[in-house]
C-alpha cells in the first residue's frame, strides 16, 4: 500500500468517526429528537447575525470544496456547521450536500443517515427530492431493487418536476432491469432526457432489454447437422 493510499484511508476513518460523533452522540442538529429540539431552540435564542454570517461563509467554502470534488474537506466543513451552528438557516442544504459527499466517498451508511434525517426533519425543504433520490441510489447500490423502486414511486408522486428527475428515472430503470422487468425498464429509461448524463447508457440498456425480451420469447430449436 503506497503512502498516498494510506493517507486517504486514514482520512476516511477519521471522517467516519466525525460522522458517528455527530449522528450518535455529538452536539448540535443531529442529536436525539428531544435533545435536538432543545439545542435548536437554544441556538435560535442565542444565534445572531454575526454567527449566521460566519456559518454562511463556512457553507460557501464547503460548497466550493464539494464542486471541486474535494469531498473529504467539504464533509468536514459541513459537519462543523451541523455541530456548531445548529440554527443555521440553510441546515437542510448542509444535510443534503453532506449526504452527497459521503455518497461520493462510498460511505453509504453514513450518507443514508444524512438523507434520511433531511427528509424526516425538513419535510418542506427544497432539498427533500434530492434526499429521496439519495436514498433511492443507496438502496440501488445495496441491490435492494424493490426498495429502490418504492422510493422512485414516492418521488414521482410528490416531486415529478424535480431537477434530479433524470437520475431518478435512470436508477429506477436500472433497478427494473436487474429485476428482469424489461417492459418497465424500457418505459422508465425512455423518460431520461437527451441532455442528461444518463442518456447514453439509458439507450444502451433499452436496446439490451429489447434483446433480452426477444431472447426470452424465441423458442429454442435444436441444431440439426
Question: Descriptors for this entry?
Answer:
single chain; 225 residues; mainly alpha; Serine Threonine Protein Phosphatase 5, Tetratricopeptide repeat; 11 helices; 0% strand; elongated
At a glance:
With 225 residues, this protein is an all-alpha fold. It contains 11 helices and no strands. It has 2 domains: 82 residues, Serine Threonine Protein Phosphatase 5, Tetratricopeptide repeat (Alpha Horseshoe), CATH 1.25.40.10; 88 residues, Alpha Horseshoe (Serine Threonine Protein Phosphatase 5, Tetratricopeptide repeat).
Overall 3D geometry?
Answer: elongated
Quote the CATH topology of the largest domain.
Answer: Serine Threonine Protein Phosphatase 5, Tetratricopeptide repeat
Report strand %.
Answer: under 5%
**How many extended strands?**
0
CATH class of the largest domain: Mainly Alpha
Query: How does CATH name the architecture of the largest domain?
Result: Alpha Horseshoe
Order of helices and strands: HHHHHHHHHHH
Proportion of residues in helical segments: over 70%
Number of helices: 11
How far apart the termini lie comes to 56 Å
The largest β sheet comes out as: none
How many individual domains? 2
Q: Can you tell me the residue ranges where pLDDT is under 50 for at least 5 consecutive residues?
A: none
Q: Helix/strand-derived class? A: mainly alpha
CATH superfamily of the largest domain: Tetratricopeptide repeat domain
The radius of gyration computed from the alpha-carbon positions, rounded to a whole number of angstroms, is 21 Å
Mean pLDDT: 86
